[in-house]
Recover the amino acids of this structure.
Protein backbone atom coordinates (compact mmCIF):
# COMPACT_ATOMS: atom_id res chain seq x y z
CA UNK A 1 0.00 0.00 0.00
CA UNK A 2 1.15 3.59 -0.59
CA UNK A 3 1.37 6.10 2.23
CA UNK A 4 -2.01 7.68 1.46
CA UNK A 5 -3.72 4.29 1.59
CA UNK A 6 -2.10 3.55 4.95
CA UNK A 7 -3.24 6.92 6.29
CA UNK A 8 -6.81 6.33 5.11
CA UNK A 9 -6.81 2.98 6.88
CA UNK A 10 -5.66 4.67 10.06
CA UNK A 11 -8.45 7.24 9.78
CA UNK A 12 -11.10 4.63 9.14
CA UNK A 13 -10.18 2.58 12.18
CA UNK A 14 -9.21 5.51 14.43
CA UNK A 15 -6.04 3.65 15.32
CA UNK A 16 -2.64 5.08 16.14
CA UNK A 17 -0.91 6.80 13.27
CA UNK A 18 1.50 4.59 11.40
CA UNK A 19 5.11 5.70 11.11
CA UNK A 20 5.70 8.25 8.35
CA UNK A 21 2.00 8.82 7.68
CA UNK A 22 1.75 12.37 8.98
CA UNK A 23 4.74 13.55 7.00
CA UNK A 24 3.13 12.21 3.83
CA UNK A 25 -0.06 14.17 4.37
CA UNK A 26 0.53 17.46 6.11
CA UNK A 27 3.31 20.00 6.14
CA UNK A 28 2.23 20.85 9.67
CA UNK A 29 2.65 17.28 10.94
CA UNK A 30 6.01 17.73 12.66
CA UNK A 31 7.52 20.67 14.57
CA UNK A 32 10.21 21.05 11.91
CA UNK A 33 7.58 21.53 9.23
CA UNK A 34 5.39 23.94 11.18
CA UNK A 35 5.81 27.58 10.11
CA UNK A 36 6.93 29.97 12.81
CA UNK A 37 3.95 31.39 14.63
CA UNK A 38 3.21 34.97 13.57
CA UNK A 39 1.63 37.81 15.44
CA UNK A 40 -1.69 36.81 16.96
CA UNK A 41 -0.85 33.13 17.28
CA UNK A 42 -1.55 30.70 18.75
CA UNK A 43 -5.32 31.10 18.36
CA UNK A 44 -7.63 29.04 20.57
CA UNK A 45 -11.31 28.59 19.73
CA UNK A 46 -14.06 26.65 21.49
CA UNK A 47 -15.58 24.92 18.48
CA UNK A 48 -18.62 22.65 18.93
CA UNK A 49 -17.48 19.82 21.22
CA UNK A 50 -13.76 20.63 21.30
CA UNK A 51 -11.04 23.20 21.75
CA UNK A 52 -9.20 24.09 18.54
CA UNK A 53 -5.70 25.54 18.83
CA UNK A 54 -4.03 26.95 15.73
CA UNK A 55 -0.30 27.63 16.05
CA UNK A 56 0.13 29.51 12.77
CA UNK A 57 -1.94 30.61 9.79
CA UNK A 58 -3.11 27.59 7.75
CA UNK A 59 -1.49 27.49 4.32
CA UNK A 60 -3.29 24.59 2.60
CA UNK A 61 -7.01 24.82 3.29
CA UNK A 62 -9.86 22.59 2.15
CA UNK A 63 -13.27 24.26 2.41
CA UNK A 64 -16.54 22.32 2.51
CA UNK A 65 -19.88 24.05 1.87
CA UNK A 66 -20.49 27.44 0.27
CA UNK A 67 -20.63 29.30 3.55
CA UNK A 68 -17.06 28.31 4.46
CA UNK A 69 -15.68 28.86 0.95
CA UNK A 70 -17.29 32.26 0.52
CA UNK A 71 -16.04 33.50 3.87
CA UNK A 72 -12.46 32.49 3.04
CA UNK A 73 -12.68 34.27 -0.30
CA UNK A 74 -14.13 37.38 1.35
CA UNK A 75 -11.26 37.38 3.85
CA UNK A 76 -8.76 37.41 1.01
CA UNK A 77 -7.23 33.99 1.65
CA UNK A 78 -8.57 32.27 -1.45
CA UNK A 79 -5.04 31.67 -2.68
CA UNK A 80 -4.61 29.26 0.24
CA UNK A 81 -7.64 27.13 -0.67
CA UNK A 82 -6.24 23.96 -2.24
CA UNK A 83 -9.66 22.42 -2.70
CA UNK A 84 -13.33 23.19 -2.11
CA UNK A 85 -16.41 21.00 -2.19
CA UNK A 86 -20.17 20.78 -1.67
CA UNK A 87 -20.92 24.23 -3.09
CA UNK A 88 -24.65 24.88 -3.03
CA UNK A 89 -24.72 27.20 -6.01
CA UNK A 90 -22.66 29.72 -7.93
CA UNK A 91 -20.54 32.27 -6.13
CA UNK A 92 -22.07 35.71 -5.67
CA UNK A 93 -21.00 38.29 -8.25
CA UNK A 94 -18.78 40.02 -5.70
CA UNK A 95 -16.64 36.88 -5.36
CA UNK A 96 -16.71 35.54 -8.92
CA UNK A 97 -13.30 36.94 -9.85
CA UNK A 98 -11.66 35.98 -6.57
CA UNK A 99 -13.01 32.46 -6.77
CA UNK A 100 -12.60 31.91 -10.49
CA UNK A 101 -9.77 29.42 -10.02
CA UNK A 102 -11.26 27.36 -7.18
CA UNK A 103 -10.30 23.70 -7.33
CA UNK A 104 -13.71 22.08 -6.81
CA UNK A 105 -12.98 18.47 -5.85
CA UNK A 106 -16.60 17.34 -5.43
CA UNK A 107 -20.10 18.67 -5.95
CA UNK A 108 -21.07 16.91 -2.74
CA UNK A 109 -19.30 15.81 0.45
CA UNK A 110 -15.79 14.68 -0.52
CA UNK A 111 -14.24 11.47 0.74
CA UNK A 112 -11.04 11.16 2.76
CA UNK A 113 -8.90 10.14 -0.20
CA UNK A 114 -9.87 13.20 -2.25
CA UNK A 115 -9.30 15.52 0.71
CA UNK A 116 -6.06 14.07 2.06
CA UNK A 117 -4.65 13.75 -1.43
CA UNK A 118 -4.47 17.55 -1.44
CA UNK A 119 -2.07 17.49 1.53
CA UNK A 120 -4.12 19.99 3.56
CA UNK A 121 -3.09 21.45 6.89
CA UNK A 122 -6.62 22.64 7.70
CA UNK A 123 -10.24 21.80 6.81
CA UNK A 124 -13.04 24.32 7.30
CA UNK A 125 -16.48 22.68 7.18
CA UNK A 126 -19.90 24.25 7.12
CA UNK A 127 -21.54 21.29 8.91
CA UNK A 128 -20.46 18.95 11.70
CA UNK A 129 -21.55 16.07 9.48
CA UNK A 130 -18.79 16.95 7.02
CA UNK A 131 -16.38 15.30 9.45
CA UNK A 132 -17.24 11.62 9.42
CA UNK A 133 -15.45 8.44 8.40
CA UNK A 134 -17.56 8.45 5.23
CA UNK A 135 -16.77 12.10 4.56
CA UNK A 136 -13.64 14.19 5.01
CA UNK A 137 -12.61 12.15 8.06
CA UNK A 138 -13.31 12.25 11.78
CA UNK A 139 -11.92 15.29 13.56
CA UNK A 140 -9.86 13.36 16.13
CA UNK A 141 -8.25 11.25 13.43
CA UNK A 142 -7.50 14.27 11.25
CA UNK A 143 -5.90 16.03 14.20
CA UNK A 144 -3.66 13.00 14.70
CA UNK A 145 -2.54 13.48 11.11
CA UNK A 146 -1.68 17.11 11.78
CA UNK A 147 -4.73 18.45 9.96
CA UNK A 148 -6.63 21.14 11.84
CA UNK A 149 -10.42 21.39 11.62
CA UNK A 150 -13.08 24.01 12.22
CA UNK A 151 -16.87 23.81 11.92
CA UNK A 152 -19.13 26.80 11.43
CA UNK A 153 -20.29 27.50 15.03
CA UNK A 154 -23.84 28.04 13.76
CA UNK A 155 -23.90 24.36 12.75
CA UNK A 156 -22.77 22.99 16.12
CA UNK A 157 -25.18 20.61 17.82
CA UNK A 158 -25.96 19.94 21.46
CA UNK A 159 -24.95 22.43 24.13
CA UNK A 160 -22.91 24.52 21.68
CA UNK A 161 -25.79 25.05 19.24
CA UNK A 162 -26.74 28.75 19.12
CA UNK A 163 -30.19 29.18 20.64
CA UNK A 164 -31.24 31.26 18.88
CA UNK A 165 -28.82 32.07 16.07
CA UNK A 166 -28.34 35.83 15.79
CA UNK A 167 -26.44 38.11 13.47
CA UNK A 168 -24.02 38.69 16.35
CA UNK A 169 -23.30 34.94 16.27
CA UNK A 170 -22.62 35.11 12.54
CA UNK A 171 -20.37 38.12 12.93
CA UNK A 172 -18.46 36.40 15.74
CA UNK A 173 -17.71 33.48 13.42
CA UNK A 174 -16.33 35.88 10.82
CA UNK A 175 -14.06 37.44 13.43
CA UNK A 176 -12.96 34.06 14.77
CA UNK A 177 -12.22 32.82 11.25
CA UNK A 178 -10.24 35.98 10.65
CA UNK A 179 -8.08 35.19 13.66
CA UNK A 180 -7.62 31.53 12.69
CA UNK A 181 -6.66 32.25 9.09
CA UNK A 182 -4.50 35.29 9.76
CA UNK A 183 -6.95 37.79 8.30
CA UNK A 184 -8.23 39.66 11.35
CA UNK A 185 -8.21 43.15 9.75
CA UNK A 186 -10.19 41.90 6.75
CA UNK A 187 -12.67 40.20 9.10
CA UNK A 188 -13.14 43.38 11.11
CA UNK A 189 -13.80 45.39 7.93
CA UNK A 190 -16.27 42.78 6.69
CA UNK A 191 -18.18 42.72 9.97
CA UNK A 192 -18.33 46.52 10.03
CA UNK A 193 -19.76 46.57 6.52
CA UNK A 194 -22.35 43.89 7.30
CA UNK A 195 -23.42 45.62 10.52
CA UNK A 196 -23.97 48.85 8.62
CA UNK A 197 -25.97 47.06 5.93
CA UNK A 198 -28.07 45.28 8.56
CA UNK A 199 -28.81 48.58 10.29
CA UNK A 200 -30.17 50.09 7.06
CA UNK A 201 -32.71 47.32 6.37
CA UNK A 202 -36.26 48.66 6.28
CA UNK A 203 -38.87 45.87 6.23
CA UNK A 204 -42.08 46.76 4.42
CA UNK A 205 -44.04 44.69 6.97
CA UNK A 206 -43.56 43.21 10.40
CA UNK A 207 -46.33 40.63 10.46
CA UNK A 208 -46.52 38.98 7.04
CA UNK A 209 -46.89 35.27 7.73
CA UNK A 210 -44.39 33.09 5.91
CA UNK A 211 -43.38 29.48 5.36
CA UNK A 212 -39.68 28.76 4.84
CA UNK A 213 -39.71 25.78 2.48
CA UNK A 214 -36.31 24.13 2.15
CA UNK A 215 -37.00 20.69 0.68
CA UNK A 216 -39.20 17.62 0.77
CA UNK A 217 -42.45 16.80 -0.96
CA UNK A 218 -44.35 14.22 1.08
CA UNK A 219 -42.92 15.68 4.29
CA UNK A 220 -41.69 19.25 3.90
CA UNK A 221 -38.48 20.32 5.62
CA UNK A 222 -38.98 23.88 6.82
CA UNK A 223 -37.32 26.68 8.73
CA UNK A 224 -38.01 26.53 12.45
CA UNK A 225 -37.56 29.01 15.28
CA UNK A 226 -33.87 29.22 16.27
CA UNK A 227 -31.75 28.97 13.11
CA UNK A 228 -30.79 31.08 10.13
CA UNK A 229 -34.26 30.89 8.47
CA UNK A 230 -35.86 32.53 11.52
CA UNK A 231 -33.03 35.06 11.79
CA UNK A 232 -33.32 36.10 8.14
CA UNK A 233 -37.13 36.17 8.14
CA UNK A 234 -37.23 38.27 11.30
CA UNK A 235 -34.80 40.80 9.79
CA UNK A 236 -36.98 40.92 6.67
CA UNK A 237 -40.18 41.53 8.63
CA UNK A 238 -41.65 38.10 7.98
CA UNK A 239 -43.50 36.13 10.65
CA UNK A 240 -42.41 32.48 10.57
CA UNK A 241 -45.39 30.14 10.94
CA UNK A 242 -43.09 27.66 12.74
CA UNK A 243 -41.29 30.15 14.94
CA UNK A 244 -42.46 28.29 18.04
CA UNK A 245 -40.53 25.13 17.09
CA UNK A 246 -37.26 25.08 19.04
CA UNK A 247 -35.02 23.87 16.25
CA UNK A 248 -33.12 25.24 13.26
CA UNK A 249 -35.04 23.32 10.61
CA UNK A 250 -37.73 20.71 11.13
CA UNK A 251 -39.98 18.27 9.30
CA UNK A 252 -43.70 19.01 9.42
CA UNK A 253 -46.92 17.76 7.86
CA UNK A 254 -48.62 19.65 5.08
CA UNK A 255 -51.72 19.73 7.27
CA UNK A 256 -50.07 22.21 9.64
CA UNK A 257 -48.92 24.37 6.72
CA UNK A 258 -52.42 24.39 5.24
CA UNK A 259 -53.90 25.30 8.62
CA UNK A 260 -51.49 28.25 8.99
CA UNK A 261 -52.07 29.32 5.35
CA UNK A 262 -49.02 31.60 5.09
CA UNK A 263 -49.20 34.81 3.10
CA UNK A 264 -45.87 34.09 1.37
CA UNK A 265 -43.60 31.11 0.88
CA UNK A 266 -39.82 31.49 1.02
CA UNK A 267 -38.24 29.01 -1.39
CA UNK A 268 -34.61 27.97 -1.02
CA UNK A 269 -32.93 27.55 -4.40
CA UNK A 270 -30.11 24.99 -4.49
CA UNK A 271 -28.43 23.22 -7.38
CA UNK A 272 -29.61 19.91 -5.92
CA UNK A 273 -33.12 21.13 -4.99
CA UNK A 274 -34.29 24.05 -7.06
CA UNK A 275 -36.97 26.60 -6.29
CA UNK A 276 -38.57 25.71 -9.63
CA UNK A 277 -39.01 22.09 -8.56
CA UNK A 278 -40.67 23.19 -5.33
CA UNK A 279 -43.02 25.54 -7.16
CA UNK A 280 -43.94 22.71 -9.54
CA UNK A 281 -44.82 20.52 -6.57
CA UNK A 282 -46.80 23.21 -4.77
CA UNK A 283 -48.83 24.02 -7.86
CA UNK A 284 -49.51 20.41 -8.90
CA UNK A 285 -50.35 18.82 -5.55
CA UNK A 286 -54.06 19.19 -4.72
CA UNK A 287 -53.18 19.48 -1.03
CA UNK A 288 -51.01 22.56 -1.50
CA UNK A 289 -52.90 24.16 -4.38
CA UNK A 290 -55.37 25.52 -1.83
CA UNK A 291 -52.76 27.70 -0.12
CA UNK A 292 -53.29 31.42 -0.74
CA UNK A 293 -49.58 31.92 -1.37
CA UNK A 294 -49.67 29.23 -4.06
CA UNK A 295 -52.87 30.47 -5.72
CA UNK A 296 -51.40 33.98 -5.87
CA UNK A 297 -47.83 32.84 -6.59
CA UNK A 298 -46.47 34.80 -3.66
CA UNK A 299 -43.00 33.29 -3.62
CA UNK A 300 -39.74 34.72 -2.30
CA UNK A 301 -36.73 32.90 -3.75
CA UNK A 302 -33.36 32.91 -2.01
CA UNK A 303 -30.13 31.13 -3.06
CA UNK A 304 -29.32 28.28 -0.68
CA UNK A 305 -25.80 29.58 -0.13
CA UNK A 306 -27.20 32.86 1.21
CA UNK A 307 -29.43 31.13 3.75
CA UNK A 308 -26.93 29.17 5.82
CA UNK A 309 -25.16 31.21 8.49
CA UNK A 310 -22.56 33.26 6.67
CA UNK A 311 -21.57 36.44 4.93
CA UNK A 312 -24.69 36.57 2.71
CA UNK A 313 -27.39 36.52 5.39
CA UNK A 314 -27.88 40.30 5.42
CA UNK A 315 -28.06 40.17 1.62
CA UNK A 316 -30.72 37.44 1.90
CA UNK A 317 -32.83 39.54 4.28
CA UNK A 318 -32.49 42.55 1.98
CA UNK A 319 -33.55 40.48 -1.03
CA UNK A 320 -36.56 39.14 0.86
CA UNK A 321 -37.62 42.71 1.70
CA UNK A 322 -37.34 43.77 -1.94
CA UNK A 323 -39.21 40.72 -3.23
CA UNK A 324 -42.01 41.17 -0.68
CA UNK A 325 -42.38 44.82 -1.69
CA UNK A 326 -42.71 43.72 -5.32
CA UNK A 327 -45.32 41.11 -4.40
CA UNK A 328 -47.34 43.72 -2.49
CA UNK A 329 -47.55 46.13 -5.44
Amino acid sequence: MNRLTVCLAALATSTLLLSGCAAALSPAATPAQTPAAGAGYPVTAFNCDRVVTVESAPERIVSIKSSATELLLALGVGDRIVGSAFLDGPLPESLETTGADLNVISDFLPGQEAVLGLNPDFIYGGWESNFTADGAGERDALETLGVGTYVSPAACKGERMPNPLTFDTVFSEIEEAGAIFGAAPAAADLVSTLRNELATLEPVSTDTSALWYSSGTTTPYVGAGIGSPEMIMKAAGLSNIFADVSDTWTSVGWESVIEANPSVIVLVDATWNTAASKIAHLESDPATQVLDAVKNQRYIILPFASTEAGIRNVEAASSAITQLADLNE
Remarks:
- The chain has two domains: 43-199, 203-327.
- Residues 1-6, 8-36 have pLDDT under 50 and may be disordered.
- The domain at 203-327 is CATH 3.40.50.1980 (Rossmann fold).
- The CA atoms of residues 19 and 248 lie 43 Å apart.
